[in-house]
Amino acid sequence: MPAEINAPQTFDALARLLPENAICVHSSLQRTKQTFDAIVLAGLSSPDPLVEPDLAEQNFGTWQGQLYTDIPALAAPHHHRFWFTTVDHRPPGGENYIDLSGRVVAVIERLTKAHIGRDIIAVAHGGPIRAALGHALGLAPSDCLGFETENLSVTRIDHEPGPGVGREWRIRYTNLVPK
User: Fold this and answer.
1) What is the pLDDT of residues 21-50, one digit of tens each?
2) What pLDDT, in 10s, does the model give residues 48-72?
3) Where are the alpha helices (DSSP H) in the chain?
4) Residue 87 belongs to domain with CATH number
5) Which residues span the domain enclosing 88?
6) Per the domain annotation, does 122 fall within a domain?
7) Closest alpha carbon to 131 in 109, 153, 160
C-alpha cells in the first residue's frame, strides 16, 4: 500500500463519514482498490464494489513512470501550470484530458440513472474528480484543471433533480479530509 494511504486514523474517519450500504465503485487501478479495502476494513459497511475502468486517472502513455520534474520538458510547449499538459494535448501513447472527461461523465450519467436516489461512493483519482466537479458545474474541461484534489479527501456532489432554475448537481464540499 502506498505510504500516503497508510493512515489508519483517516480510514477510520472516512468509514464514519461515508454513507453505509452505498453503491461503491473504484477504478481498475490498484491504489483505488487498496484505498477502498482499507476504508471497509476500518468499518464502512458496503456491498462488493463495482470496478469502473473509466474512472482511472488520465493515461499518460510514455510519460507513465517519469519523474514529475521531467514532465514540463516532455510536455513542452503544451505544459499546463496546474496539470501535466493542456486538456487537448495527448501524450505519446496516452489520452488527453478531454478524453478523460468524456469517459468520466459517461460513468456518472450511467450510474446516476441506474441507481436513482442511492448514495454512490466513488474511490477515484484527481483527474476524474476534477472532471466530476466540472460536470456538476457545467464547465468545459479546460476550466477544470485548476481544481485541487488531496489524497484521502472527500468531494461530495449531490444529484438533486427537480423543478426550478439551475443545474441538477450541488457541490457540498471538496477536499474534506476527515479526522
Assistant:
1) 999 999 999 999 999 999 999 999 999 999
2) 999 999 999 999 999 999 998 999 9
3) 8-17, 30-41, 71-75, 97-114, 126-137
4) 3.40.50.1240
5) 3-159
6) yes
7) 109
